[in-house]
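Hi! If you just cloned this repository, the fastest way to understand the data is to look at a raw example. We've pasted two of them here, unedited. The first protein comes first, obviously.
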Amino acid sequence: MTWMGGRQAYVEAVDSLRTATGRPAGDAGRAVVDRAVGLLAGRTRCRLAEAHRHLLRMSAEQRRDLVEVAAGVIGLLDVPEQDEGPPHPVPLPAPAVGVAAVRRPESWLPVVQAVLDTMPGRHALLTPVRDAAGRLADLEFAAVSPEAIAGDGLHGQGLLGARMSEHFPETLASDRWPIYERVLATGDPAETGPFRHAAGRSSVRAHRLGAGLLLTWEHHDGGPDGSERIAATERLGNLGWGEWDLVSGEVRWSEQLYRIYERDPALGPLSREESEALAVPGDLPLRMAAAEAFERAEQVDLTTRVRINGRIKHLRTVVDAVRDTTGAPLRIYGIVQDVTARETSVQRLAEVERQLAEQRRSLAAEHQLAARLQQIILPIPDGPMELPGLKVAVRYLPAEQEGMVGGDWYHAEALRDGSVLLAVGDVAGHGTQAATTMAQLRHSLRALAVTTGDPAVLLGHLNRLTCDLDRETPETTATAIVARYDPDRRRLTWAQAGHPPPLLSRGGRTAPLPRPAGPMLGVVEDARYGCATLDLAIGDVLLCYTDGLVEHRRRGPDDGLHAVIRTVDEAVAASPRQPLGELLDRLRQANPDDDTCILAVRPVTGETRDLRHYLRMG
């Protein structure tokens, strides 16, 4: 099977795993799921198909959309592991004298290894080791298939980190070496052989993959005999067999069983005492239960842990016996499989799931805290607000997505000189930090309004405050609109700091107002802000809002703005005498990703009666 064939087999296998309920909608959803599968497999070192099955199970058990679960996995895992060091190419182990180490990217190697794990035959990805002059000096095994084997018996992932010069030294002096150099240099695949290798004849196909060399070995001698087939099966399944003749006392082990226990065959099989010394004490109840089952003439199948050369291995053992007529065992035989990789993957997947659950609980707690904080510092009026010369309506639309409480805010109050101060703002980010910053800006605006009514000057003060907050909490920024309305002249003076422009509905047509100059808050310490003026007429409707109203994951900001303008036009046309209530009734759709604050105003005369007669806030 070629590399592309193995990749296609994986794609088909993953497609077969996607159920009707778990299939992500569209290319974007599929990309999110596939990225989560890759991260999950790479971080837990399990196979891609296993990672995908685990993702589907989490989605079903939590009754959450598969894409949502995948996004949570990406958010948790799309950071470097603490023991990985910086996310830059890392140097190879120190080479021999005169050989310079090269640097290589390794983030894609787990994916290559996961694909090779599923491929029969002998395949290996090797990364080049070059000398000081840049010439190819050696090749290092970076990913291998289970059947890959060296002449000294080292096989499968035991070859990882080994070098060609250590296990295939004759290759460096053969005519194959210049071919490998040429494939790495040009990217053109090549095949070499047949050549004599070990006890048979072999050919090698070489392909460049990334910065490495993908080699595939193929044997040309007649089909393997029974013993070779058994040996290949043992290596592929990472298992070995053993038998114990209780009559003669003879114990036999297969070659692979010696490899599993990392034992020199010259020492012979482990004695009972040596075997028990390797066992992890915590598994004693399992072993005792298995012994009792064996005494009842039952086949035993259990997985226990052993400590070999300072490392814990998980070994699955299946044991049965040939018995006499009384049931006494005459010959015990069994199969031992090294399932360490599988058990480790299961444990790592469980740990990822635990971390995700903990993250969700933490987000939920933060969401509740931020929501309570927001309700305390940003009370939303149940009904309309009457201010000098204005009718004001407010609506707050919380984000649909859990944990997305934002820093959107408004302010509307009458000043001592008879004018009205209006403001809408949006602090970058979500959660308690955004809500806290929002509170500081809103309360500071209210306090500063005692000293000046100039919107540009007020924004300048808020900008300096945000810059000070940024020193304590980096990346603190915000946008805002501040306006002052003079009811005697019906004149609105306003300034903005990187905020979406207000919408003015006049004569049945709605358009955004031209914005005066002004950068975001917290970006430029000595920023200056300009002012614009607007004379409002009876029948006008002014809509101030935060960007959650026009920005949406399924549409661009221009599309969102056009949709809001259309809604304003339709609301004013449908209810010209009570447009604010009609408008806010129509702007009920929450943004799944962001909070939205809406402040709608219209000028009134002394003849206008109580707003509750005209405004529905249902």
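Ok, and the second one:
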Amino acid sequence: MSLDTNQLLLAHGNEILLLVEPASLAILSANAAATRHLGYAQEALLKMQVTDIECALSDVFYWEDARNGIAPELHDAEASYLKADGEVLQATKTVVRATPDSTLLVVCALPVGKLQRTEKELADLSARLRATLEATADGILVEDRSGAILNMNRRFSELWQIPEDLLLAHDDAAIFEFMAGRMRDPEAYRARIDEIRPYDDIETVDTLMLANGGVLERKSRPARHGNLIIGRVFSFTDITERKANESRLKLAASVFTHAHEGIIITDTRSCIVEVNNTFSRITGYSREEVLGQNVRLLKSGRQDSAFYTNLWRDLVKLGHWHGEVWNRRRDGTLYAEKLSIAAVKNVDGESRHYVALFSDITELKEHQHQLERMAHYDALTGIPNRVLLADRLEQAIAQSQRRKRNLAVVYLDLDGFKEVNDLHGHETGDLLLIAIAQRLRDTLREGDTLARLGGDEFVAVLTDLGEQEEWTGILARMQQAAATPVKIRQHTLQLSASLGVTLYPQNGSDADTLLRHADQAMYQAKQAGKNRYHLFDPERDRQTQTHLETRRQIAQGLVRSEFVLFYQPKVNMRSGEIAGAEALIRWQHPERGLISPGEFLPLIEDDELIVRIGDWVMDTALRQMSEWRSQGLSLPVSVNIAALHLQQEDFLQRLQAKLETHADVPADNLELEVVETAALEGVSRISRLIEDCRSLGVRFSLDDFGTGYSSLTYLRRLPASVLKIDQSFVRDMLWDSEDMAIVEGVIGLAAAFRRTVIGEGVETAEHGELLLRLGCDLAQGYGIARPMPANDIPAWAATWKPEPSWSACRNLAATRDDLPLTYAEVELRHWVKCVESCFVASSVATVADLCEYRFGQWYHGDGQTHYGRLPAFAALGPLHASMHALGLELTELWANGQTELARGRLSELHALRDEVTRHLHALQEECIEARQVLRFPLF
């Protein structure tokens, strides 16, 4: 292009051109378009700075950057120019360098013309349209003739809950598919959409059921430009609440017609204006018969005028009333109804109608009466039950407080009733209870109460009592009534009663306390032998409370793992083998330290807690046996089982489960110890249980044998494999011939019944030696080992050795022929203890006693007769004489007040005793050898 052409464009072009020096911002040159658009003369522009005419704040910022040399090489922006007439000219501008190596800047600005104003007007129109769409309460969707979305408002996206990311994607197909997915029946929706074509000249109305329960009404109509259809407009209205209201109205109408309650609508004058079907069914009146009638036609006459006065007062004041009313049916019969009345008011708060709802509760009232009778009276005997007793007792206490008189609570339990039930059946037992209850009630005075708590337990409340003779006389009559024979069918039955008595206010301040005290007193009457009464003892109650607290602590201790097992070894004294160990529970109390079982087990022996303790002991013992086996120590363990634990119906199943849990422990390594007295209480059941346990491999032993007075029949019926001689007999058998006789008898019984026998309480080597001579090889006791923690058992087992004195007894086969010598040894020890007793207490033995002691009688009598021919017997003579003389000498010293001198010489007496004992043992060995070798009878 030529220079003339360029100048022509500069002169006649429409674009403003300015040449600017950036350091001073001075306008160095301007074209004709600049003077034409801005209205300034050429000379005026060349005297200005560019910031004099560019008035936008963004322009000023740019030129400040240009002055500082930090403006960009190319700058495009919107600009505002201040014209000479004061108006502002809007333009778009570009600022560039004049030449690459020049610092001058060229501003090229193009004024904004009519197109922009048109666009602005269109934008304003679009904004008004958008505002109109957003202002409407309906959701609006606009489609073109092809079905593409042209516009939608926010309400539309809210109604359909269209995610924002889906709206921003502008994917019409995805939006339509999302809408179909919101429908309860998407396929039907899609089919209907296909039927509504955007270019059809039709208007549609549809109800849309959404999957979430909502309901929309959709309307559509064609959008026109002149006569041309250019698309379709859809509007969506949420009619969920409207539909719900319509449903509720239909439901209300249905409820009124078909409600199970009778409904009456009256005007303010109580005239009936409407009733439902149930009203007619209950009252017998048809709708036509009662419309316009006053509700008084239903009155029964059982409520007085005051009742209706109060009803109307509440109805006017509160706007509602509810209660129970007796009314009359059409046929004249009365019925009870549960009635609720509410006032229907207008907008001014004035009552216009009353609505009454009622239901027939006649049968309910009859059942209520029966239930009240059942709730307060015993179904079998007809006398008050526990509930009514509580109410009567509270009333009696209040009456006693007012009158300052005593009352007594008597807790009665029949003796032997269970046996009657078991022998003659429950029906006979029930008839017996009825008869006795009637007799007991007849013994009481008017104002007294007799109640049955259940089973064969009764409680009597004796009120308004004076002297003791008054209530003791009533107790005597009650006992006589319970003990009088009763003939039921072909049986004449007779029982007795144990009564517990407590007095108010002496022994309690409330009903629960009095009943508890009477129950405790009744239990004491049972313990004392039955067929008597026992007056409550407060001191015993305090002990009971202490026991209850201890039981609570025991239960907490079990939860907190405060219990531990100690193990006391059992040994075979003859062979020197370790036969096993007995698991003994200890309580590691956080405050009292280690507590022995004798301090806490007796308190829970009749409580279910003893079962939990027993289960814990078995689990712990089996777990410990398993641990020992892993260490190479196979040690059988016996555990003690309480009577209540054995009586549990599922005892065998629980035991089997524990054995299966510890399958590595052989079942025959577990032995269950049962005290003899517990076994004898239910010998038949215990016998079956022992057999069942033996089938699992578990062994049983009878503990404390000899204390239960078992007969040979019981012993034969109890298949326990081990008898444990009670330690009280073993401990004293060294010097008590009667205890020694019991021990010898138990050993003989065990041999006769082929049972293993073990002696408890072996505290010294002498105890073990005597047991061996009597034929008992197994033993346990402090003389062998004290109970110890499980971790100490392996070390003890590795180092234990039997007493040397037991070795001499290993090869001796004693027989009953040798028992006289054993008894002689016991009598010898008894005589020495008698001498010792003189120096430790008041006089126990006299010189005459010592002269007539049994050992001397035996030595000069049966001993001389049976053993006099043996050499060992001859050696006993001098020793016996010396010991006897020393004993007399010591007692004389004591009698003369020389106690300390006598005590100092006791060691001489002990030495002689031991020497005589050794000779007795030698004599026994000589007898045994004589029988074995010479084969001749000694006598």
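That's it. A detail worth noticing about the second one: The chain has 39 helices and 32 strands.
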